[in-house]
Amino acid sequence: MITPRFRLEQNDHFVIAYIETPYVKFSEVEISIHEQQFSFYCKPYHLQLYFSNSIIEDGRESAQFDVDKGQFTVKIPKQVKGVVFSDLDMLTKLMTPVTSSEKIKASSLIEVLDSSKDVAECEEDNIDWTIEQTIPEDELPVLASTSPHYGFNGCAHGVFTLRQEDLHELLDLSNPDTTPVAERGRLQRKTEQKAFSADHYLADYCDDDAIAEFIAYEPEWRHLRKQKLSGGYPHPESKT
Question: What domains are defined for the chain?
Fold first, then answer.
């Protein structure tokens, strides 16, 4: 998972998150709002934040994606209007979950005399489900201007630099950002030759009856053209 670059703002009603996620599909985004925890996932990006105050999912939440900027703008409703969320500029702190030791410290004055939970349930409560996050670098890796280009009119490059784990799902080429154009063509022909199967094309001749009707079909305009060439095509002003 990649931790995206992000920044936060707030007003009386919302915490507003600006999350940079270039080259993603908006339809694949998943957002979760629960108590003081906010989660954002859009493959291959994942972000999990822990706020100082409670947030709520009440229908006011929204997310917009700017394709040109490659940026999501997410409005996260505050549970209490006007409350000020502290440390929104301390990214490392926001990305750090409350540890089990802190939870124990907070509840150390409470003595549990009896509990209906069994051992398995208690062990499940102690499982750490969080995903490790690291603050992204200020800048994405910069490729040389002479690096291979691709896409419409050859205007894109470096798209797959941060998506190495997805390449096997998207491309046959292992590293498109560093493979020269001529080499890409050679590898493409090699892959096509390896995958070529004569039996696949011979199968088209095995069931002639199924396509005989379509081969014999002649559209209406063909009949009209034949009539015109033979002199039997009626003149538009002639009367029948």
Answer: 6-95 (2.60.40.790), 152-195 (no CATH)
Q: Are 67 and 55 in contact (CB under 8 A)?
A: no
pLDDT tens string 194-225? 888 888 777 767 767 777 777 788 888 877 77
Place of tokens 């703008």: 73
Q: What is the pLDDT of residue 106?
A: 45
Residues 36/55, Cβ–Cβ less than 8 Å: yes
Q: Name the one residue in this structure whose structure tokens are 């996260």.
A: 76
Q: Which long-range contacts (CB under 8 A, 24 or more apart) does 78-81 make?
A: 78/10, 78/12, 78/13, 78/14, 78/15, 78/53, 78/54, 79/53, 79/54, 79/55, 80/53, 80/54, 81/12, 81/13
Q: Shortest CA distance to 74 belongs to which of 156, 152, 10?
A: 10
Structure tokens at 29: 């985004």
CA 199 to chain CA centroid, Å, is 38
- pTM value is 0.54
Tell me: the pLDDT tens digits for 96-146? 886 644 544 444 455 555 555 555 555 555 555 566 677 665 544 444 456
From the number of C-beta atoms within 10 Å of its C-beta (0-12, 13-18, 19+), residue 10 rates as middle
In angstroms and rounded to an integer, the radius of gyration of the C-alpha atoms of the chain is 31
Give the closest residue to 74 by CA, choosing from 4, 130, 171, 172.
4
